[in-house]
Each structure stands twice: as C-alpha cells, then as structure tokens.
Amino acid sequence: MPVTLAQAKLNATDDVDVQIIDEFQKSNDVLNRLTFDDVVSGAGNGATLTYGYTRQITQRGAAFRAINSEYTPTEVTKQRYTVDLKPLGGSFQIDRVLNRVAQAAETAFQMRELLKGTSAKFNDSFFNGDTAVDANGFDGLNKLLTGTATEYLPVSNGVSTGYVDWTAVSSQSAAFQAIAHIDAWLGTLDGRPDAIYLPRKAKALFKVIASYAGQYSIDRDSVGNVVESYNGIPLIDPGQKDGSALDVLQVVSRDTDGAGAGGTITGLADLYAVRYGLDGVHGVAMAGQPLVSNWMPDFSTAGAVKTGEAELGPVAVVVKKTKSAAVLRNVKVS
After folding, report:
1. CA 328 to centroid of chain Cα atoms
2. Residue 46 confidence (pLDDT)
3. Where do the DSSP E strands lie in the chain?
4. pLDDT tens digits for 69-110?
5. Cα–Cα distance between 266 and 284 in angstroms, integer?
6. N or C: which end of the chain has fewer CB within 10 A?
7. Can you tell which superkingdom this protein's organism belongs to (predicted)?
8. pTM for the whole thing?
9. Are 98 and 12 part of one and the same domain?
C-alpha cells in the first residue's frame, strides 16, 4: 500500500532507520509530504525497476445541447510515461581508532552529514532533475512543466517586459497587482496546492506582498518547523544543493520577452506550486521493500577501516496530472 515517511517510521524495526526517517522529515519538506506508491516489483530474471503510468494532459469540459441535436464528442487527452527507480545515498569509511574516540562521535557525524547530503540531492532532483544530464536520476518539475498549460509566463499574460517586478512593491495597490498574477498562476492548477516552493529572496518579498494584502500567516508543521503561509499555503525555501552552497532554486538572468529587445534581465526567480497525492505529484518505491536502509560500520571483525552506508529507495517522482503542479516564471526579486 502507498506509504509516507511518517508511516515508514512506524514500520521501521531498526532504531537507526527511525532516526534516518526522522532526519528526512525534519529537513526536507518535499519528502515529508510525498506519498510513495510502493508497487514496483523487482521479481524475475532481468526485471527492471520501471514504473509506467498515464498522465492526464487536458481537462474535461461540458456544454449545453439543443433538443434533437447531439453533443460534440470530446475526449480527455492522456499520455503514457515511464520512470526508472534509482537508489539515492552514499557511503563513508571510518578507522576503528576514530570510532573509539568520544564514543563513536565520528561515525555519527559522518552518517548525519550523509543524510543531509542525500536529502539535499533529492530536493535538487525534485525540481532540477534531468535524465539527459544524469541518467541515474529522474526528471524534475522544471523539465516536466516546461511547455505545459501550468507554466505561467508573464509575457503570455499581458506583461510586455516578460517579467513581474516584486522589488518595486511598496504599497497595497502594487501588492494587489502582484497578487493578481499569483492567483492567476495558482488558478491553472486543478486544486489547492499543498505548498509553494521558491528561492529565499523571492520568499522574503512574497511575505511583504502577502502582508500588504492581509494574506500572510505563521504556523508550525507536523514536525515542529515554523511555516510561513500565503492564504494558508505554505511558502517553502527548499534550501541548498548537496555538497555546495548553491541554492536548489536559484535566482538567474534571462531574456524574458523572448525577442531579445529587452535584453537580459537579472535577478529572476521561478516559483513552484505542488498538489501532492496519488492522482497528482507522488513518489514511487519498490513493493515490499523498506523506504530507507542503513549499513553501519562493523568494527567487530578484523580490518582497520570499515564502511558505512545509507540509502533512500530505489525511488522516483511522477506527475500524474499536468495540472497538479505549476511554475511561475520570471519574477524579479533583485
């Protein structure tokens, strides 16, 4: 049956696995919200860890019919997709002498840092993953939403410059103009999103805009983290990439009007809205296998240097409906 990290923690029998899941929950909003459909089987010779699904591309409409006439047949458009599950994690090595220092403090430190790196890598892949760049990963929202009906481009929505400028919002009227684009963007979804993900600079300005409109609030999530919200929708900064000080969602420069006339605009951010669920955005895992696993160094046998490992999955992420996720491009935040 589908499982979340919270449910996986209840089923874990290893104390270290419980700690690993707890670390993922506290440090990663995406992982904490994702439901993993654990249906992929690795049984049989040569079996592949591939998950096939049908993505709904368009929405069904309706119309009135005149008496003695027929409806015009219209079908919802679907498309077949597959994604390959891949394990995500890493390993480290510890000398047995270092393990004895401060009661295995070095081993605990290396495991903790590995979990932080794994969590950050998953976040980065969720948004920026591209199998054309890293065949061992999965495609992220940036790639999956490009060219879809939920990719909101200001240049296609009445903004000739191709970007909306949040740096100039200093009044309630200007805030409402900004919110008009935000609500139009959120309106492309098929339901209320569970979260909005955005860079730090964009989040700081979003809070100002929401405050002007009386739509800003502060609460705590299920694991005690402070959550700032717009109209009840959490605003989440997904943090930094693994092994670097670069943000997962970066502020970039682009030619926003698509024609070159306006030149390259600096300080642009993209915002992502996600509705999680098995009919929307969800994870995929193996059937009958633990969601997380660990292998602690075994210092009870001969050999001075031992290896420890931790692993999430194999896992992948899918978007069942195009309208379950949306991206707002080209918001000027600096």
Report:
1. 15
2. 45
3. 36-40, 50-56, 78-84, 86-95, 151-152, 164-165, 195-197, 216-220, 226-230, 233-236, 252-254, 265-274, 281-286, 292-295, 305-319, 325-332
4. 888 887 777 777 788 888 888 999 888 888 887 777 888 888
5. 37
6. N
7. Bacteria
8. 0.82
9. yes
One-letter amino acid for residue 78 of the chain: K
pLDDT digits (tens, 9 = 90+) for 133-164: 988 888 999 999 999 889 999 988 888 888 89
Is the sign of the CA dihedral 129, 133, 138, 142 positive or negative? positive
**Within a 10 A sphere around the Cβ of 189, how many other Cβ atoms?**
19
CA angle (139, 143, 147) in 5-degree steps = 145
CA separation for the pair 304, 287 (Å, rounded) = 37
143 contacts 130 by C-beta, under 8 angstroms: yes
The answer to whether residues 65 and 82 belong to one domain is yes
* Amino acid identity at 248: V
Q: Say how many C-beta atoms besides its own lie within 10 A of residue 322's C-beta.
A: 24
CA distance 271 to 195: 10
Q: Do you know the residue count of the chain?
A: 334
Mapped onto helix, strand or coil, the DSSP state of residue 184 is helix
The domain total for the chain is 2
pLDDT digits (tens, 9 = 90+) for 65-75: 788 888 888 77
The H-or-E segment that residue 32 falls in is helix 29-33
Asked whether 143 and 83 are in contact (CB, 8 A), the reply is: no
Range of the domain at 218: 150-275+322-332
For residues 137 and 9, membership in a common domain is answered with yes
One domain, residues 19 and 126: yes
Q: How far apart are CA 307 and CA 176, in angstroms?
A: 56
Which CATH number is 66's domain given? 3.30.2400.10
Residue 64 CA from chain centroid, whole number: 40
- DSSP lists the bridge partners of residue 226 as 220
